[in-house]
Amino acid sequence: MMASGRFTDEERRYLRSLAAVSRVTETRITYTMAFREECMRRYWNGESSTKIFREAGLGPEIIGHKRIERCIARWRNDGVASGAHNDYRHRSMTSGVENESQLRQRVKEDERIIVLQARRIQALEDQLNQLHADYRKLRRAGLSGRSIHTDMLDQDSDAGTGAERAS
Predict the structure, then answer these.
(1) Based on the domain organization, do 64 and 140 belong to the same domain?
(2) Which end of the chain is more exposed for a tag (fewer CB within 10 A), N or C?
(3) Where on the tree of life does the source sit, at the highest rank (predicted)?
(4) Phi/psi class of residue 97: alpha, beta or left (left: φ > 0; alpha: ψ in -120 to 50)?
(5) Range of 130's domain?
(6) What is the torsion angle, in degrees rounded to the nearest 10, for the CA atoms of residue 84, residue 85, residue 89 and residue 95?
(7) How many domains is the chain built from?
(8) Is residue 106 part of a domain?
(9) Assigned domain for 2 exists
């Protein structure tokens, strides 16, 4: 897809040839209900949304990652693949869940955990970047890797380990 967010004539022809697509304009794709339902069924069963779209010929290299993410979010919020006529979600996903409200609560909690994990990962990456920057500063100051390591060991022994402090 071009940086402008518009599909070329060639891309539109390709997209129209796919069974998952019912309509295409320069900026929009309308997916068939069958694809939407199948996509969400597989998504609720733990498959990657990117994998599902790619297998339908709609990989991120063609439609972009953001479009895939937004489709999943929209369909999840719209309740695609829920309700009596679409009730074929995998039993393992709904085991122990009595109703749709409980299922939505479980998904909401899972999303909250993912956000917390992403924040923790970011904090660790920031800490690692800071350690790399500090190491480069020490190297520029003329300390060798050996003396940096020795200095760190000396600081650790001066402070004592948690076990030594506890005793």
Answers:
(1) no
(2) C
(3) Bacteria
(4) beta
(5) 96-167
(6) 20
(7) 2
(8) yes
(9) no
Mean pLDDT, the chain, rounded, equals 79
Do 64 and 23 share a domain, yes or no? Answer: yes
Predicted pLDDT of residue 163 = 47
Q: For 149-160, how does the pLDDT look when each residue is reduced to its tens digit (9 = 90+)?
A: 666 556 655 555
For 94, phi then psi, to 5°, come to -105, 5
Instruction: Convert the pLDDT of each residue in 2-20 to its tens digit.
Output: 557 789 999 999 999 999 9
Are both 49 and 110 inside the same structural domain? no
Query: Who contacts 23 (Cβ-Cβ below 8 Å, separation ≥6)?
Result: 29, 30
Position of tokens 């955990």?
113
Give which of 18, 46, 38 is closest to 30, Cα–Cα. Answer: 18
Asked if residue 128 and residue 79 are part of one domain, the reply reads no
| CA–CA–CA angle 23, 29, 35 (5° rounding) | 80
Answer yes or no: is pLDDT of 104 > 60: yes
* pLDDT digits 0-9 by tens, 25-39: 999 999 999 999 999
Residue 22: CB atoms within 10 Å: 15
